[in-house]
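Appendix C reproduces, verbatim, an entry submitted by the partner laboratory led by Prof. M.T., so that reviewers can inspect both the input and the predicted structure.
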Amino acid sequence: MADIIYTWDGNTYFNITNKCPCNCAFCIRKKADAVGDAKRLWHDTEPTFDDIKAAVDAYDFTGVTEAVFCGYGEPTNAYENLIKTAKYMKKLYPDIKLRINTNGLSDLINGRRTAEEICSVIDIVSVSLNDPTSEKYDKITRNIYPGKAFPAMLEFTKECVAFGAEVWMTVVDVISPEDIEKSRKICEDCGAHFRLRSYDRGR
């Protein structure tokens, strides 16, 4: 089985699924089979909660202040395992902040509104905005919900803000400076913080 928990650039990550409704042009998993200290991040089969729980029990979280749900897939594609794992972590390590790096399409993936439950167990939500218009977003993410994904992502982000999580929206520095500034404005309108991610660094 591939690594479920790994470290990269000093941070601790959970790789709980390889499924994703997007095929982003800049996705880091196109570069290599693993990052950080992980040997492999491609699962032969999707991990069960028991698999994830065993990985948590075996991992040394000494000194860890934040753990991030972000592996080689979209964490909300393994929604039940995401929520169960977050609750288990909160029980064992209440002082560790939990963050999710997400494409913000959880409601479309799961067929229901999910922001409230996610924000009840996740402290920080980082949503990949990627581009400032629905057309450009669909082109760069190549998602399976064309025309629906962009507005759903914005609505999810606004709901996460409303439910009290610390919310960030990100774009990768492969888009134009003009679109970066347009994205920043959209982020502000959603009530979230903005961050520009480096493609070369992979984060």
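The radius of gyration is 16 Å. Additional entries are available on request from the coordinating office.
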